[in-house]
Amino acid sequence: MADEFQDERIFGTFDAFTQLKTLQDKLLNARYNINEGMSDEEHSERSVTFQKFTSMLDAYQEQSYLLDPYLEQLVAPVVEVLKDYVKTSIANPTDKGDTWHAHRTANMLYCYVKFRGYKTIVRFFPHEIADLSMALEFMLIPHGIVETHWHWPVRYVMLLWLYIICLIPFDLAQFDETDQIGQTAKTLESVAKTYIGAAGLEKEAAALLLSRLYIRKDTGAGFHNFVEEARSFLQTTTDDLFKAIGLLKVLCEVVKSGSAEQVQDELPTLRSIATIIQETTTYANNTIIRKLRSKLISRVGLRLLPTSSGNIKRQARTLIADEVSDEHGGYQEEIEVPDEIEDILEQTLAALQDRDTVVRWSAAKGVARIAQRLPKDFAGQVLETVMGLFEIHSVAAASLYDLPAIAEGTWHGACLACAEFARRSLVEPGHLPQLIGWLSKALYFDLRKGAHSIGSNVRDAAAYVLWALARTQDQTALIPHATNLAQRLTAVALYDREIHIRRAASAAFQEHVGRTSLFPHGIDVLGKTDFYAVSIRKHAFLVAAPQVSEHVEYRKFLLDHLLDVVLRHWDLSMRELGSQSLRLIITINLHVLAPRAIEKSVKLLESLDSTDVHGGLTALSEIALAYKEDKSDPSALEGHLRSIFRHLKHVDANTLTTTRNELIASAACRLIANSITVTEINLGARSSVPGWKKIVDNGLKHRIALLIVELKRGPSVMQQGLARLLGVINYNTHPKSLPEAIDYLLDTVKPTTKANIETRRSCFVAIPQILTLIAPQLTSLLSSDVLNTLLDAMLAGLDDYTLDERGDVGSWVRIACIQGLTTISELLFGVGGSIPDFESYFSPQKYHAVATGLLKQGVERLDNVRQTAGVCVVRLLNAPLPLVDGSERWRLPALDLLNELFQNPSDQSGWNDGNWLFPRGMRLLEVPQYRKDVLSGIVISIGSKTDSTQKPVANSLVKFAQGLPLVRGPASSYSLLELVADLISHAKSNMTSNAVVVPVFQTFTILLEADVLRQLPSEPSGLQSLKTLVHMTTKNIDKLKSVQRIHESMKIFVNVLSFEEIRSEKLSLLSDFLTHPFPKACLFIVAGAGAVRSDTAEYLYILLQSADLGLETDAIEDILLETEWATGDRQVATEAAKEVIQLFTS
């Protein structure tokens, strides 16, 4: 259970009255004409208003009494609106009117009933005699609103209304016709019985109405028939649980409030009903029916006994602990206890052991109420029987923690019953020692069951008993038990796991302090353990507990409780907090308390239970820390630490090294860290714990695995820290942690991961660090497949172009991968001679892929990425080849060219200088192995928005392309046709990615504007490339959403119109741009862009002005200038585009 909590807001007054009244009035006045209907907007508005109404009430649910002064003002108007609807419906039964308004009105009344309880709200219902016929007639309207199943609030409220009317003491016969005496009563009974088996709340109201009818003197005769019908139904029908529940509710109400004669007359039948329920499996398995059965039999027992006896109000208590004897205090009435009481008590006591809390709670109240009406001796015997329930499962159990899980229900029921006895002053002083003895154990009832524990309800009920004893017991009777109770309640208030138990124990302590003044230092301790002080577990353990321990009366008990209970608790956090609390307590008197704590902690180390061992280790670790913090005797510090350290040998070595004992290994490591001394380290194998180094190594192994599990689910900062940590761990001494570390790193750098960019960068940085650390034992720790998987992940990282509001943050990953791949390559080349099958670890193809990836990054758009890539490329050029057979295969392609371009001593500059780099980078396109990746990098640079990058790369590409032959010859390694084909292929393979297609189109625009591609149509393949380019730029152009891509496509298409071979075939596609449905360009995509149509017209006009197309273009130019392309109607643009195309072809 999470200990941190946030208390609900505490209200002082009902501040929302005005707002609630406004919402209510709005709902009450919201009507609509049934003939016109209600729009969806109106319906939605009223639904939202009603939700606000219910939410406002819900906010005050825990303090519903605050509405009491306003209830009449709130409830009465709602009731009146509903009453008006009832009158209207009776006047015209065929006109249902605004049914949903009636439904919502009734629902508002239900909300008030839910909020404050039906007993409070029905007081505001109309309850005049004349209202009976009106309400009853409304319920009997044929096909009325009450017969529609979704209008359940109306049925519920109307049944409550009938119920409150029936409370009025008048004869129902006055509503009967002369020849139909009793008809009104029969009609009421029939209406109630109609809904007694409903699945909804109507059943509750119907049960109230029926019970009120049978309690009335003029209609009580019908109870006999009802009881017989109920018995017959329960005996013959087992599949209608709702009706069974409704029938039992009626019986319980009548037995509670009806006359004693009624109950006694039906006693055999009522008892047989209880027997039927017990023997019918379907009923016995239903919690609500079992609760109602318990309530029924206990109430039957109450009606068999007189309402006054010597046990009732024998004494009362005041806050000043004085006893006020009742006027009948010395009087003991002699009564004859019916024989049936014994059987009823036996059944009620059995219900105390039920598996469900509500049944036990009902039985506890029932047995205490019956005992209250019995003679003192008889009541004492009942209490002894209740206390005997504690012994049922305790006989065979060696200790409290050995009890079976089923004992929880028995102990809880017994505690609840004892609390009810105590509340009614039925606990005699002679029973106190035995009762307090059992309660002392119940306060610690905490049994492990699977992954959780049971028993919090037992501890809560035990605190409730002690609270009740403080209110009713004589002060002199509590004196012998005061100190014991004070110590136990304080221990539970401070050290229980659950917040509500700590608060319950604190409340019981407070009650004793206020009413008895017997607890040692009661006021002072109460101030340290009040409601708020114990609400936060950490505060209770580490602040309140040491403060209470300053009092000698509590110190030893709290210390023992920590060592015997808390340090053995199943919850890890409890043991760890308990050990810290132990350290704070023993510092009060370290030299006296520490030896005792050490003695008990050492005994825990010898236990077979790993929980006990862990608790003992954490305790010794904190005790060692306490000695370190104590400055009173520095000379004795080493002796104390060595003494504590020596106790580590009590822990079995197998326990520390066995799998799934990570907690013990961790605690042992902490103990070593806190208690080891220089002397023990220097003794080496002669140390008092020779295997302590092995324990540390084993603990580190577990810790690494635990860290990966914990931190990978933590926030991004923790994940970054984990990645950095994994990069510096010494895997040579912890080889078993290496696979887990690598798996985590690979999972985190996957493209589909949710890890942020910083975490991925840290992971890429960690991979080469790990390989560097394990290089001496590479083949023994890492397989070739795993190494190649790591290299593939690093190569994939070179394609990370993640963008966010900070810009190209993917460059952080690319830089980390550039540096990492270079480091790994140098590392593997360096140890290549010691790797038997070096090629399987680092093949020539993989190395060449690394070099190619670095060269691609070397010609990309960001200066810092290019500079980093350049430095790393030079490192690879200077790296010696691996000392393996056939090492020449690892030599980089065109190595001489690379050295000439990038290692010329007379012409050196930084790779971040575009004017120096890009002319050299274009030469790399001559090398087939580098061409595809380098061209991709160049295209990305052309798409850059930075002039210092875009202009140099564009100029360099144009100059390089101008120097290429159209077709490759014997003396050339590349051609213009191949360049165009490569660009088209690059775009085709990424047509759905604007980040790739747009820069490719920009590259073609640069080449076309520079007239580099003029010779293409002379070759068939060149002409086909131009046609393919046109197809790529015009396909689905009207459906594209990227305005930048539309503009770049337009520029290419307009430029290729200068080729007559293309213009004659593709000219009709010009209208797609001149009439494009995107009239306005997005300024945040293309700065300063106007309309797509106007930009097309302008670009075409410029082309016509600058290029000789071999035709007269004056008329075309006039149309382009005179047409309002951007702001005009699209139809105008369409007509103008047709004219332009016609003039081109004429």
Chain-wise SSE layout:
Elements: H1 17-29, H2 40-59, H3 71-91, H4 99-116, H5 118-121, H6 130-139, H7 152-166, H8 183-194, H9 202-215, H10 222-236, H11 241-257, H12 260-265, H13 267-279, H14 281-284, H15 287-304, E1 315-317, E2 323-325, H16 339-351, H17 357-372, H18 376-388, H19 407-423, H20 432-442, E3 447-449, E4 452-454, H21 456-472, H22 475-478, H23 482-495, H24 499-516, H25 522-528, H26 537-548, H27 552-564, H28 572-586, H29 590-605, H30 610-629, H31 637-646, H32 653-657, H33 662-675, H34 678-683, H35 692-711, H36 716-726, H37 738-748, H38 757-774, H39 778-781, H40 784-797, E5 803-804, E6 807-808, H41 810-831, H42 838-841, H43 844-858, H44 863-878, H45 895-902, H46 914-923, H47 928-942, H48 947-962, H49 976-988, H50 994-1009, H51 1020-1034, H52 1043-1056, H53 1060-1066, H54 1070-1074, H55 1092-1106, H56 1114-1122, H57 1130-1145
Antiparallel strand pairs: 1-2, 3-4, 5-6
Keywords: Chaperone
GO biological process, one term: post-chaperonin tubulin folding pathway
GO molecular function: beta-tubulin binding; GTPase activator activity
